[in-house]
Amino acid sequence: MAIELHGYQYSVYSWIARLALHEKGVGYNWVEVNPFAEDLPASYLATHPFKRVPTLLHAGFALYETGAITRYVDEAFDGPRLQPAGPRERARCSQIMSIADSYAYWPLVRQVFSHGVFRPLMRLEADESEFRRGLAAAPRVLAALETIAGDQQYLCGNQLSLADIHLAPMIGYFVLADEARALLQKYPRLSEWWSELSNRSAFVATTPRLPPALG
Known about the structure:
Layout: E1 4-7, H1 12-24, E2 29-32, H2 42-47, E3 55-58, E4 61-64, H3 66-76, H4 87-121, H5 128-148, H6 162-174, H7 178-184, H8 188-197, H9 201-206
Parallel strand pairs: 1-2
Antiparallel strand pairs: 1-3, 3-4
């Protein structure tokens, strides 16, 4: 049975799920869902009662929460392993995913990207103070990640993992702001990782197409 991924085209968490599927080599059907719409269909609410995205449907199995989705994708399908085998590396992978959710998402995406990039593009009201607060909070997050990233090719070793997949879209949105991109350059390990990760074919293929700047 075909896999369906229900998500919103600009959602960073939908992007993460798509990236995991692409890196795993798993085909899927995309179903666009706008979680901000007032008239979400009852069929979607039956699979995700909290009105968020993404949700994955596979052979009668409905799953939401992005970390659960990406782990399921890794464990349920053939393809390159996306979770380290060693206990320390596996723990580090989980730790980085948790850091991304708990400490990176809000300042990097909801503050810097949303108010510094996305909302102006969409001609929506943006709050400069929110953008500035996100920039002020970002160094603590980036410094923590710089410290634990290690010196191998990817965040948890020499093989791509769910940690890379979880963090990369957040950084991808963050660096669309000029000041944020300059800030990342102060962290050489993360900058080197980002330079390679952002050029992977799966990352390029799944990057959301933002609307062009409006005059």
